[in-house]
Automatic annotation (TrEMBL), chains A, B:
Main location: membrane
Name of this protein: ABC-type nitrate/sulfonate/bicarbonate transport system permease component
Entry-linked CDD domains: TM_PBP2
Keywords from the named record: Cell membrane, Membrane, Transmembrane, Transmembrane helix, Transport
Organism in which the protein naturally occurs: Paraliobacillus ryukyuensis
From TrEMBL, chains C, D:
Residue intervals of the ABC transporter domain: 4-228
Record PANTHER family: ABC TRANSPORTER ATP-BINDING PROTEIN (PTHR42788:SF2), TAURINE IMPORT ATP-BINDING PROTEIN-RELATED (PTHR42788)
SUPFAM superfamilies for the chain: P-loop containing nucleoside triphosphate hydrolases (SSF52540)
Pfam families, per the entry: ABC_tran (PF00005)
CDD domains, per the entry: ABC_NrtD_SsuB_transporters
InterPro entries for the chain: AAA+_ATPase (IPR003593), ABC_transporter-like_ATP-bd (IPR003439), ABC_transporter-like_CS (IPR017871), ABC_transporter_ATP-bind (IPR050166), P-loop_NTPase (IPR027417)
A GO MF term: ATP hydrolysis activity
UniProt keyword annotations, A-Z: ATP-binding, Nucleotide-binding, Transport
Name of the protein in question: ABC-type nitrate/sulfonate/bicarbonate transport system ATPase subunit
Amino acid sequence: MFFAIPNWLLPAPTDIFHEAVNGWDSYAHHLLSTSNLAVVGFVIGVSVGLVVSISLHLLPSVRQAVYPLLILSQNIPIIVLAPLLVIWFGFGVLPKIIIITLVCFFPIVVATLDGFRQTSPDLMHYMRMAGASKSQLFRKLEIPHALPSIFSGLKIAATYSVMGAVISEWLGANKGIGVYMTLAQSSFRTDRVFVAIVFIMILCLIFFAIIIGLEKVMLKGRRGKDE
Amino acid sequence: MFFAIPNWLLPAPTDIFHEAVNGWDSYAHHLLSTSNLAVVGFVIGVSVGLVVSISLHLLPSVRQAVYPLLILSQNIPIIVLAPLLVIWFGFGVLPKIIIITLVCFFPIVVATLDGFRQTSPDLMHYMRMAGASKSQLFRKLEIPHALPSIFSGLKIAATYSVMGAVISEWLGANKGIGVYMTLAQSSFRTDRVFVAIVFIMILCLIFFAIIIGLEKVMLKGRRGKDE
Amino acid sequence: MSELIAESITKSFADKQILQNVSFTVKEGEFVALLGPSGSGKSTIFHLIGGMSRPDEGTFSLDGKDITGQRGMISYTPQNPSLFPWRTIIQNVVLGAEIQKKPDYQTAQEMLEKAGLKGYENAYPYQLSGGMQQRVAFVRALLSPQDFICLDEPFSALDEFTRLEMQQWLLNIWQENKKSILFVTHNIEEALYLADRLLILSNNPATIKYDFSLPFVRPRDENLFLTEEFLQWKRKIYQALQENNHIPS
Amino acid sequence: MSELIAESITKSFADKQILQNVSFTVKEGEFVALLGPSGSGKSTIFHLIGGMSRPDEGTFSLDGKDITGQRGMISYTPQNPSLFPWRTIIQNVVLGAEIQKKPDYQTAQEMLEKAGLKGYENAYPYQLSGGMQQRVAFVRALLSPQDFICLDEPFSALDEFTRLEMQQWLLNIWQENKKSILFVTHNIEEALYLADRLLILSNNPATIKYDFSLPFVRPRDENLFLTEEFLQWKRKIYQALQENNHIPS
Amino acid sequence: ANSQDGTEESEQNTKEEVTMVLDWTPNTNHTGIYVAQDQGYFEEAGLDVEITLPGESGADQVVASGQAEFGISAQEQVTEARTQDIPLVSVAAVIQHNTSGFASPVDKNITSPADFVGKTYGGWGAPVESAVIDSLMKQEGASVKDVNIVNMGNTDFFTAIERDVDFAWIYYGWDGIQAELRDIDLNMLYLTDYSEKLDYYTPVITTNETMIDENPETIKKFIGAVSKGYQYAIDNPDEAADILIEAVPDLDEELVRASQEWLSPKYQAEAKQWGVQDAEVWKNYADWMYSNNLLDTELDADAAFTNEFLPENE
Ligand SMILES: Nc1ncnc2c1ncn2[C@@H]1O[C@H](COP(=O)(O)OP(=O)(O)OP(=O)(O)O)[C@@H](O)[C@H]1O
Ligand SMILES: Nc1ncnc2c1ncn2[C@@H]1O[C@H](COP(=O)(O)OP(=O)(O)OP(=O)(O)O)[C@@H](O)[C@H]1O
Ligand SMILES: [Mg+2]
Ligand SMILES: [Mg+2]
């Protein structure tokens, strides 16, 4: 039963490949547009996430009050947010970036804050005794100590950023892989839908690989668990 | 300009409150249905996430191969998955739970695996010398050590589970807060849309609070950073 | 009751050779002390016995059985206490036992009292002083069921008197149960007071340079420190160690 | 060049009183040793001087200035080395200096060589033995710019000879720069060899029970250990400590 | 796409920018607009039109709020919107008659509303659906109570009929044509065949009341151009299909051509002019909705639409 799926619902890989090769000219610009959106959104989302988590970390009293709001921000359905964003910011790139930012920043905040919280008490103790200022404590101890957690958050965010970009295009866009996919879907071109998915996945894997590469470089020299 | 928003687009809080009180009977069962879905989906998603991450952790060779697939699983747009799920599983509750599971399990996997990776080498050393079996190492050291990370993942997953349930209802459901919201939206009852959002948020906060409470209990006695 | 034989153990880290052809025996019920310069490879020997990694060459056998690379055959105090921060003190001390069989909280309680830690059973490690943590790690090793005990500087953070009490207590336990003990220390008097035999490690790469059998009768008490024979031995060991007398690099 | 005065310091953890009315002075350029039973409160005194928490009562002043609860006024070796696992050895030793001003890698390099750690500059802490890590923490404290140094059992993991070299080196640095030093140790000989004055802490709760001024002339060398005067002092301190002779609880 | 305040300058030489928001992805309902764009009718009228896809939430709110000048909607939505005081006005009917109906594969044997009994209907959960089905079935003495209604969410027609669904509500001009192309034989029960009151306008072109008050000229120019576009599509279905395909190359060519072929004659049908709307149609449907409890208040039908912007009949 699982394999009795009509071709128009789940096209054969060869069909998908064929369409991917032949259709390149027609979707290359969509791809570019979505990657741009995803990269910009990811960078902004991560920056916002880091700034927010650092601020909350440095202002523990604010943290209590703001944390629930962050959770809430993840629960505003896009179909509600979409008209508001469009009305405030039009059909341009800004509302889309807001959506991606909203998707990316939350995993960063949760992971980073948890990273800060787990800072080794012994090292913290040494730094305090040595008279480290709050900013030194932060730069020399808390940040490097939280780095693995931050990367954990970055990985989740990177994974979501491409999908976030695709979703943001449903806000109303004239190009982008999300638009391409909706058009394909509504004109029943399932092969194209799958081409779109394949590229979304490739984009996402590239993003993820970049983060892993960065992690390798930045955490170089840290002791692996088997050494 | 920001505040020149007509009432039918962003209703006044009093209107929302009014509708929330008066309409209770009409949406209470939707609410119940969605909470059920979210809880079941969350529990299954978290279980799957834990099982997957534990398996990957214990089978590092499989890990390399499977990890990219996990990332990909987060990048299958629901609009593509939906028809397949419907064909395979119909319009019942199963495909919806699959969607929520898909949303919830990923943050758990990433956070848990990163938690395992950070196990203290000194304690690991002691356990090995003491002849701990793989399972003891796991139960007595790796799990307790990864607990804060796991909770970090649980928090993200809990946040997403309610939204995941709402999205899953777009797959076709006869009740649920997602259905209620879509209908309200299409008949321009923005006040009801916002009632739905408010309840989605409340549900989500309750979930989050439960996780935080659980974390407090399970991590009790662990040294806070200021002690 | 167990006899450990180390045969021509060689070990390098990266391109640096640490141990070269190290051979020794710890007989059944024997108490052997291991001395050597800082960084020479004493802890490394322990890690190899414990099976943390395999020697590049050579074998360990316990009671005639090859245990090279096998774990869980010895009970052990690491050089730093390595207590589990999320476990209370009593939960920490039973850990070694827990891994092998059902832990005995009754005995654990008594042992903690003997180690001067009464009232700290339910404290967490961070609430203890350095010396107290070291005693917890020591009690944990004593409560482990294995008959061969490796102790890596277990008393280095203790004051003279607490240290003496611990030493005396260790001797009692050792005599009662006839466990075999391999003991790393930097304190010559401690080594002389406790051990039957005394191994001295050279440096760079480390080999066993001396293997002294000590003639002091048992049971021993504090008066031993004042005997002429003890002082002579102390001088002798001092000189043996002095031959390594350059800062290791 | 700095003078520390501790005035009637009292401190409790939860319901347990640790320090009661502890007062002492470390004069400009003075080398003071602090002895006391394990768990009596020596490290706690350091933490209070360092401003980690405030005493329940009492004040510290440095050069007449109240520094109670203020951080960064002293340089310090913690009882466990507390090295930063993601920093190489050379990056670790400059950390204390880095916090106050621009670090001097040249001097750091020389200091590491003197501590027998040449060739380990770019190693990570986990690649070092226990004693080597302790030396790194010691070098880190010496490289910190403050004039008042608190050392918490800095040599406990070193063999006799490495320890002697480190002691001698510490004395040289201290004499050259006339820093003031407060030094915790469990080794009576070490305390006698290094210090001008010797404070003995009682237990439960801790107070300063004795404050001995040592008459040995400087510069001191290893021959001091063999003098009759030294042996007498050793016995005296031993007895003073013995009055605490029960396992603390 | 902000024109309200830039009108004065743009009237002199620069073109006036307006935004047109579609109701869904581009399809043959929108051909006239794309033709007007391609053939330069907008340009001639001094307009610079941006055609935008609506995204998740549809065009109505965006148009009503003035963020976009024009949009595509349907009579049913405009009716609901207006009874909620949302200032949306229909200015042209794209198709004269309702081309939607209940479709089912022939092997389900659904040839009249009475056959719905015992079958499964796949819908999206709106109250209007059961009301429509019921009014069809009543004519044959049956009741919607005997129909099993499931919500199929965003699932498309072809997927749904693979599974538990027996019949669904589709636009013949798109899904129906696709079925033809796939050689799936459908039984189609058009709403218009069973009830006059259900022959409402879908889709329609909308604007908001502010536009009507402040920029009637712009509307006139826009509708004039669009009207020419649809006239072109009526006269030249093949060329019109080409234009749509060229403008939106990601659409399926075959489907567009077939659909255009089918739809072109239906834009104007028997009406005297493309786009005209009849007050009766608006009244009938609103009354039907009201009597079926689908509206909270009655509609002021005359305010909901206007023909005043249609070009004078030549
Ligand atoms: N994981 C490692 N990687 C690289 N080198 C290591 C590693 N572990 C130990 N070494 C090196 O091996 C040598 C011996 O270390 P070991 O810990 O056995 O010394 P030790 O005799 O116990 O010294 P101490 O008395 O100071 O504890 C040292 O030079 C150390 O740098
Ligand atoms: N954070 C804490 N919470 C509760 N009790 C503590 C804490 N830190 C220290 N103590 C208690 O304070 C007492 C003194 O500890 P401290 O570390 O100062 O001892 P010490 O003299 O340095 O001992 P050692 O020689 O063993 O290092 C101990 O009984 C210890 O249990
Ligand atoms: Mg060692
Ligand atoms: Mg201490």
